[in-house]
Amino acid sequence: MKDEEKQYGDIKIVNNASENRVQIFFPGKPEDSVRSELKHSGFRWSPSNGCWQAFYNNRSKYCAELIVKKLTENVPVQ
Q1: Which residues contact 36 (CB under 8 A, 6 or more apart)?
Q2: Which of 34, 49, 55, 63 to pair with 17, CA 20 to 30 A apart?
Q3: What is the pTM of this model?
Q4: Nearest 5°: CA angle at 27, between 21 and 32?
């Protein structure tokens, strides 16, 4: 496995294989509904990394993409 990054507008998803985490970096604090969805999907806030993260697996990778795509519809992937 190797680390991968995807940028959706101002939001970045990092598949951090070296730390066994899927990480989502937001430009600021997400709204309550987004934070609730992140928690429901197994993501937790990591103050030391400044991101929301979950264990690296297919479910967390899928949930990260789904949540971020909902927030950034019509924003091209870079």
Answers
A1: none
A2: 34
A3: 0.90
A4: 80
pLDDT tens digits along 20-61: 999 999 999 999 999 999 999 999 999 999 999 999 999 999
Q: What is the DSSP string of 17-63?
A: GGGTEEEEE-SSPPPHHHHHHHHHTT-EEETTTTEEEEESSHHHHHH
Question: How many CB atoms sit inside 10 A of residue 2's CB?
Answer: 6
Instruction: Report the SS3 class of residue 67.
Output: helix
| CA 39 remoteness from chain centre | 11
Go through 35-71 and write b for each residue having 16 or more CB atoms within 10 A of its CB, e for each that does not.
Answer: eebbeebbbeeeeeeebbbbebeeebeebbbebbeeb
